[in-house]
Design brief:
The chain is α+β, with helices and mostly antiparallel strands. The chain folds into 2 domains: about 150 residues, Gyrase A, domain 2, CATH 3.30.1360.170; about 60 residues, no CATH class. The chain contains 8 helices and 5 strands. A 5-stranded antiparallel sheet has the order 1-2-3-5-4. Pfam families: Thy1. It comes from Paenibacillus spongiae. GO terms for molecular function: thymidylate synthase (FAD) activity.
Length: about 230
């Protein structure tokens, strides 16, 4: 399996990967001019030691590449893990890469994330961020209808602007932003992916990005099972 659907329209696709748990082991052992040809119990103990002691550089030699299609609100949360990935051990440079589709150049049919009536959540009782319990179905149905009408209005104005000859990079201003689906490639080390997963698999993470994090874990865990078990 290389792709998992998320929500009604989104998905995560594993495009490519480099290395395995054995890569992590051999990156650590190169200091002693040692190499393992097949992962064994001693290697598993080494990975556990590296993770527990914060010796994370060997985990940056294993790489995964994903294509993600998600609402803009998810993408902008996710982006924090790219711009913040250089803090590990004071490395100074990030091995993460992010390339995103742009409506400056493309005019494909806009797609939007619209929660269904039973998916709207209340504000949390004791926090300024996050969400609480689901609101009533009747109230959720009202806001689903209103959001759909808002999106349809934005699309009609966007298409009218294009028809009038307005350039795509300005016509897109009519599109409601946060629910708009965008597509990007994310290439990251196993350490960076694990850091993202450790944060966004938590129960208090926004539910929409939690679902994407679960898809990432399902795709990548068979490739790096030992490393992820120790890092998350």
């Amino acid at each position: 399996m290389s792709m998992i659907n998320v929500h009604e329209k989104g998905y995560v696709r594993l495009v490519d990967h480099m290395g395995s748990d054995l890569t992590v082991v051999n990156a650590a052992r190169v200091s002693y001019s040692k190499e393992s040809l097949e992962l064994n119990e001693r290697d598993v103990r080494l990975i556990k030691f590296l993770a527990q002691e914060g010796h994370t550089s060997p985990f940056r030699h294993a790489i995964a590449q994903f294509e993600v299609y998600a609402p803009l609100m998810v993408a902008r949360q996710w982006w924090k893990y790219v711009v913040g990935s250089a803090h590990y051990e004071g490395t100074g440079d990030s091995l993460d890469a992010w390339n995103e589709s742009s409506r400056r150049y493309i005019t494909e049919e806009p797609a939007f994330y619209i929660p269904q009536a039973g998916e709207w959540r209340s504000k949390p009782a004791n926090s300024k961020q996050g969400s609480g319990e689901p609101i009533t179905w009747e109230l959720g149905e009202k806001h689903t209808r209103e959001l759909m009408a808002y999106v349809e209005l934005g699309i009609s104005k966007y298409e009218a602007a294009l028809a009038d000859g307005v350039c795509a990079e300005q016509a897109r201003l009519f599109l409601p932003a946060y629910g708009l689906y965008i597509r990007w490639y994310w290439t990251a080390s196993v350490q960076s992916v694990a850091h993202f997963l450790a944060q966004r698999l938590e129960d208090d993470a926004q539910q929409e990005i939690q679902q994407y994090a679960k898809a990432i874990l399902e795709l990548i865990k068979p490739i790096y099972p030992v490393s992820l078990e120790q890092l998350i």
